[in-house]
Every structure is written in C-alpha cells, then in structure tokens.
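Below sits my pick:
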Amino acid sequence: MDFLIVGAGLTGAIIARELACKGHNITLIDQRDHIAGNCHTQRDTHTGIMEHKYGPHIFHTDDEAIWQYINQFDQFNPYVNRVKAEFQGQVYSLPINLHTINQFFKKNFHPREAKEWIEHLAVQFSLQPKNFEEQALSLIGSELYQAFLKGYTQKQWGCHPSELPKTILKRLPIRFNYNDNYFSHTFQGIPLHGYTHVVNNIIQHPNISLKLNTVYKNSLTQTTQHIIWTGQLDQWFNFKLGRLKYRSLRFEKETADGDFQGTAVMNYSDEHIPYTRISEHKHFTPWENFTQTIYFKEYSKECGPEDIPYYPVHLAHSDEMLNKYLELAKTEKNVTFAGRLGTYRYMDMDVCIKEAILLSQHILCALEDKTAIKSMYHF
C-alpha cells in the first residue's frame, strides 16, 4: 500500500519504518524544517553543545524490549536525571526525598520517622481526592505542596491545581530515602549522537520518502491509500467544534562561560518567578567537555494558533469537546490517528514507541486479513 504519514516525530518515524520493512511505500511529511518533532536535537553553532531545542528529553523505561529497540538506532549512554528546585532562596532535591524532607523541616529523620511525619501532615478527605490539589495534600500535606507543587503547577498548566486531574501527580513520587534519581525506571539514558540522529536512522529505508517544510493538504492524498495522522486531533477536523486546549513553551536562550547552575535542571517553585525551570544542556552529555555553556529559561503558555503544542490539557471536571472529537474520529475512513497529538494524550517517549509498534502491527494484521484499518486503536 501507499501510506502518507503526517508528522516526522518519534511516532510517525517508527510507524513509517515498521510498515516500510514489510514492503509498503511511505511518504513521510512534516511542516517543520527538521525531523524528530519536539525531541529534535542539534549542535549549538557557537559552543558545540548538543541542544534539546524544545526542552530536555531523558529516555526512561522499564520495558526491556523497547530499550533494546531504540538502542538499535544509536547508543544510549546511561544518564541519571537529578532535578533541583529553588524555593524562597533555598535549593532542594526533587523528587521529594528524605534529604528534601530533612532540609525543609530542619530535621534529622530516619526513613520510618520521616514517613510517620508526612503521614501526620497529610490532609484527610472524607472522600477520595478529586483533583491534583487534593491528591497532593493527601500525600504530602500543605507545607510541601505549597513549596514544591502549587506554584510550579500553576505556571506549568496555566490554571489552579484544583482544576487538574489527580492522575498528573503519578509523575511526582515521594521517597523516604536519599535517592534523588528523578525517575525510578530500570533503563535510563540519552543517545550519544542526539535524538535527531536516532530518528534519522529509524527512517533510513528505501521505501520511505521524506518531505520537510510540507504542510498537509488534500492534494497530497491523490496517490495515497491510507493516512497516518500524528498532528493535532482537532486540526484534522479544521477545529469545527473549537480548539482543544494545549500548553506551549517559550525559551530564552543564554550563553555563558564555565558552568551556569551546576546541574541540568533547576525548577523554580515560587509563583512570582515567571519561568518554570532553567535547563543547562551540557549537563545532559557528561561524557563531553565544554569551556562554555548554554542554558534555557522555560516559560509555559497557552497554545495559540501559531504556537507549537506540547501538552494536552485535561481538566478535572470536563472533557466534553474532546469526547465529541473522539466520536467523530471513530467514523473517519482511510485515516488512523496516532501519537500524543493525534490521540490527545500525554505519553512519555517509551510509550510513544511501544504504541507506534503496536499500531503498525494492527495495521499489518488488518491488511493480511483483508479487513478495514481502524481510525483509532486503543492500547
């Protein structure tokens, strides 16, 4: 078959490869001038530092098969993400761990004592927590919530934490030991040559034709039998029900001599500081040495029509518009929606890879069985 895949990010690239390897012809397009989507990396022209153009990406997974799969396309060097947070002039370790607790409360707790202390501070609700704020208060109490979560979350999502679903907090663990590894997954690393190199290797196949600076339009489908859409779900329908909410990011890039902040990522929890974090990119490649540095102040903002969408915004009380778009998507023919934007879900890179492989397998099975390819697959 002849497939048109819209979007040359991680999802689109992997689906392209999986289908191409089975003999199908793929036209892969992207409206930007580069591949790899928001995990695109490039060398800073002044310093030579590998720059994560759209914000830091650390690969982490417990799925050994996915780890082996992605390592086919570049060597992933071990990397531990050690995030710091500044609050009221003090620097703390994240995620909240035994050192954070002892430093914040000026204590010398052992693990059991710290656990009992936090359980004492936790807010009890008569019913199950209904949103992000209640979930946080039920886990860590008011003081740690105010210090590390409330202000940062409001800046990141552009709304009060009580408007966000409690499921977001699953990404912020609390530990009663001195482990300051932000992630708890078995496999963690960053590609030796950057993510763009990885994606470029993925799409190196004679059955894949890449076209950059190419905006999707109907005329592109004249020789196409099926479309894989990894763009915005609502964009496919020309926003006829309205625009789904996304957050976008803006970066202020600076260059300095030596080392700017001594760590890769520093969160800023105070509400009066307008940026959410500063990332210093040479710390993502500790195997390289540089006399200069580049760092990025990161600002979160509502995604407008001309902005790049990063995170879908799910509110605790309503997803009415989304549900209507999903119902419309089920009725579409000759198109399959995939990836973060196409299914309007936040997914880490390992999940994107796994779902792209599974979706490709479903498509191949449908072709073999001579059944219709679905517009939506659920994993």
